[in-house]
Design a protein that fits this description.
The protein is mainly α. It has one domain. The strands form 2 sheets. The chain has a two-stranded antiparallel ribbon. β3 and β4 form a beta hairpin. α4 packs parallel to α6.
Length: 288
Amino acid sequence: MALNFSVFRVRALSAIVFVIVMLGGLVWNNWSFFLLFVAIATGCLFEYQKLLAKIFPSYKNISPVHKWGLLVLGVVLMMTLAPNSLGVKDLSIKYLGSRILPIVIGGLVAGELINYKKGFILQNWAISFFGLAYIPMALSLFFQLKGFMANTFFGDWSFSIPLLVIVTVWVNDTMAYLVGSFIGKTPLSSISPNKTWEGTIAGVILAVLIVTKVLGIWIPIQEKFIFLISLVAAIMGNFGDLFESKLKRMAGVKDSGSMMPGHGGFLDRFDSILLATPFVWLLLQILF
């Protein structure tokens, strides 16, 4: 596919604004880090509900209690999985979330059974709880990734591994788009016809090299570990992108939303991260 410069310009400008917001949230303080990922999770979960409502007719008819209660449950779940250190005075967000969580779940189930005239449909609940695992639970792992480099010999580098994951995914997406636009000829999958094998392979290789060699200069992590983290993030990020593309194809839509001009919605922007993060977390559990 040929490079569309007008589209690329829009994508580049919106990406600059996006990067500024993301980096600010990542490095400012613990609260900005937490609120950043709560906002991302809420936006992704909202778009996930819209996509699945187009795929499954019964899910389109879930009650308002189910629809909005799920978004509240996603926020409370992330509070429950937040680090112990995050809180106001002696009241931690984690403790507060763990006390609110059963109340929200109970209210959600009770409200659904009372208000939904067609009764309890297991498929709809399976869709909703998969969404919780797919989005807020996956993103909450960033809280643990942040803890790997906190208070090291070199100081507080807690944002470094989340930054590695996110930058790897960004560079992979950008390089795959550019290389695929210029020399891509072999379609990667019928799920996403605009993606090519040439662009995908080049994106992974360039992302790993750039992140390992450039960020490796600034971040006090051994280069071999940066290489492994970026490799897993780049490869699994592509699978995350394909999974979301499959959902959009089944729903018959081009984008999951319109949050970013030229990029689409929350899910379009964070689909790769949703799958890359759990596998990077698993890698670190194995290594350390």
